[in-house]
Amino acid sequence: MYDQPRANRPQTAMTFDQMLERVRYEGAYPTRERAAESVHNVLAALGRQLTGDERVDLAQCLPVEAALTLTAQIPHTEPLTGWGFVKDLAERTGGTPATARWDTGAVFTAITPLAGPDLITRILHQLPDGYPLLFGRTDLRRPQPTAA
């Protein structure tokens, strides 16, 4: 990784424990262990989708434990659509698409403020259709990259 600062990078730091509490709250999970399971599963799945600067920049925004989960994955050669992401997550975890979608929403809600709107827009531009709703954005069109 590199230490070059990125434009509009949020300065809000969060520990992994704080992240787990946020995910536990957002997902209404009964235990921290259940929240941790969701964080690791969803970030591993996202790590299989992201490449390049967006992957590196997101990892830099996350607590170390979360960043390691994200970056330990080898990206797929063909990214999945948002629905494909949810189905793949459900298959890998032995859950249903509904629970995988719930877990994804809880984790993405927690990481969005850490990444900031510019990085999330860049991530959404890189990924195929279907991800904006997973990140809590109501505009379902793929975002256009911002001018540098």
Q: What percentage of residues falls in helices of 4 or more residues?
A: 55-70%
Q: Helix count?
A: 7
> Tell me about the biggest sheet?
none
Mean pLDDT: 89
Q: What percent strand?
A: under 5%
Rg estimate, integer Å: 14 Å
Regions with little confidence, pLDDT below 50 for 5+ residues? none
What is the H-and-E element order?
A: HHHHHHH
Structural class label: mainly alpha
Cα distance spanning the termini = 21 Å
User: What is the number of E strands?
Assistant: 0
Shape: globular
Structural write-up:
This protein is mainly alpha-helical. Helix content is 62%, strand content 0%. The two termini are 21 Å apart. 34% of the residues are buried. The model has no long low-confidence stretch (mean pLDDT 89).
Brief digest:
The chain has 148 residues and is mainly alpha-helical. Helices cover 62% and strands 0% of the residues.
Task: Supply database-style keywords.
148 residues, mainly alpha, 62% helix
Write the layout of secondary structure elements.
Layout: H1 16-27, H2 32-47, H3 52-61, H4 64-71, H5 82-93, H6 97-126, H7 131-134
Helix pairs in contact: 1-2, 1-6, 2-4, 2-5, 2-6, 3-4, 3-6, 5-6
